[in-house]
Specification:
mainly alpha, 0% strand
Length: 184
Amino acid sequence: MNEFSVVCRVLGSLFYRHPQDPLLAPLFELINSGQIVQHWPLEQDQLLGKLKQQDMPALANDFNALFIGSECRVPPVRSEYDQQESEALLRDFLQQQGMPLAEGPSDHFGALLLAASWLEDHQTASDTAQITLFDQFLLPWCDRFLGKVEAHANTAFYRTLAIITRDAIAAMYAELTEPSADGE
């Protein structure tokens, strides 16, 4: 797994999974011990240090209030930000790439980052599918989503996660779209 995939997988998991999900326990251990900095390819050490969260019940409450239910403060699905865009279009795109789809909404912000990780790990030749995922399905609404997370989060964890994610998406997109040195 390369750096791009790791960043997408970590950020996607933190937005997609409930903080009390046992699958996130090792990741939270890395965050709380400060060891995530050693594995993080972007220069965001100070921000990563702000993710240390000792109060898991407060983090769980914030996650629920932000992202869960019809009365959530920050809907985590793309279709809530652009009524013209259907989830079916995204599902079709991901299926065309050979990605196995889960039962939940494929246009969930965290799921889109996890899809970017999957595409990176399973691409054989070009970055075209990843660029399409970013251009059509992630970038048009991610700033609004992340801005709402920053504005409505009760914990420093989710406010900081939004900042880290915004910077990481910009860096990853720049890497995807920059011309390669060999002229491709």
